[in-house]
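Attaching the record inline, Q. Sequence:
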Amino acid sequence: MNLLMIDDVRKRKPLVHHITNYVTVNECANITLNLGALPVMAHAPEEVAEMVSVAGALVLNIGTLSKDQVRSMILAGKKAASLGIPVILDPVGAGATELRTDSCHEILKEIPVAAVKGNAAEISILAGADAKILGVESMGVFHDMAEVACRFARERNCVVAVSGADDIVTDGNITYLVGNGHPLMGQFVGTGCMAASALGAFLALGENPVESAAVALASFEIAAELASERPDVRGPGSFYPALMDEARMLKGSTVETRSRIRKIPSPAVR
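Structure, as predicted:
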């Protein structure tokens, strides 16, 4: 596993095309930039195919959804797939409404995604398992999430990343737990969306997808740990700019030292 991957992101500066929500668009752009990649936010159907053609990855986020946005996502996703450009889907709030759930299934039907990143409820619902979600927040206690994620990954032939105290990252055959992060990440809106942007920046390198996803999450979450340790950070308001600072300064050697990625046996899928 290449734990120095962020150094390669900084050297290559891949363009990460986002079609995302208007709540966290600024946070997604900033974390992409500060991790070393180049963000572009383009959603008009008239330009998405052209824009994604020069990108290294495409991130689709359904947080503020419309039918026109889904159309743009599918147009961009099909073009990306034809060029071998990885597509990352962040199914924000899947299960909260029929529009969100149906739109995710439509995207997954039309586009061969490289990775799906979501919370336990979002992934469970898309995988056909029981789950409860309120707005965009996962509710309740989830069991056998590694099995659910593995089954979903095998069905879709993609990487599945489930956020949590230990993130689950799997392609259905190889499974990692990522134990980095800090509770302050849950105290302001946008860290989940930012994690999808991190996946885009790292998967754009074209290395092993499941390893790239695990290292991307660890790198982002290590930046959060470092931000939380700063004496000037007192809460979510001061944490956010500190996170951007630490992401900007993060080096592969620090990820190598601090990463808490461990490989676990992939559960047998029933």
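The CA atoms of residues 56 and 204 lie 5 Å apart. The chain is about 45% helix and 15% strand.

More tomorrow.
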